[in-house]
User: Fold this.
Amino acid sequence: METFGSLPSTMHVDSSTDADSPAPSSVPPTPSVDRLGGLLERFGVTATLIEAEPLRFPRLYGDGGVAPGVGHLHVVSRGTLQVEHADGHPEPARLVIEEPTLLLYPAPIRHRFIPVDRPEVTCAALEFGHGGLHPLVRALPAVTAVPIASVDGLAPSLALLTAETEHVRCGHRLLASRLLDVILVQLLRWLFDHPDAAGVHTGLVAAMTHPGLAAALVAIHDRPGDPWPLERLAAEAAMSRSAFAAAFRERLGETPAAYVADYRIAVAQQRLLAGDAIVSLAYDLGYADPSGLSRAFARRTGQSPTAWLAASSKAAG
Assistant:
């Protein structure tokens, strides 16, 4: 299977043409912890059906087109489709889909669909909780194209989605949107199991393939207010302190202490937007007092929590 990375300006997605390339293992060795649940439960993501129909004319998504300001999930179920990235980002500038494929854009990116041979596409808008603050939006590639045949367990979900989008029935758009939520989680699970195939070699997704790092990261995500000295994180990972610190920096590009601090601030931002008070946040996130949270917040964002919240609320309209 071909995926994004250092690629030419045009790329074809058709895994059947690359017979010499081994397919990813259907049951890869993975850490025995839920690496996604905590992030999705805390920060959230919601899919909303936009349309499900044969594509007969070019279609622009993102700013200036359909569903601006959000991410997108597209299910190309049949036919051939050309995708153009309107602003030259991300690479490749042009992508040709020649087999059933899932296309994921976690952040708002302008992209244009051009029908080539009777493509049928189901499109969803993706609202990741608190947008660019969502750890997955920051960790995932700007665009990922995955042949549907590569993702185990998709067939029942896709069959139900097709049944709901082929006919107008009571609640069919709501049910289709929830099925797209399921398909998104199945795709994210696949990406966490096969980051190399998705062109992800560093960062949170890549780190989550390491059993020890995954155990430590899940512990941080689940209990951000706990004290997390290096010794305790290494114990969670069942590694020595030196081995853990080296592996963490290699995969994530920062120290464990910096990651804990950044994640706490991301949680603080999410909860401030949800209306939580700074006083309760400070103690929940392991700070001795609200002043400690405010100082840490300012070091990482350049603003006090109050100023940041005011600016964020104004930008949201």
Q: What stands out?
A: Confidence is low (pLDDT under 50) at residues 1-8, 17-28. Residues 210-315 form a domain with the Arc Repressor Mutant, subunit A fold (CATH 1.10.10.60). The two ends are 42 Å apart (CA to CA). The CA atoms of residues 103 and 147 lie 9 Å apart.
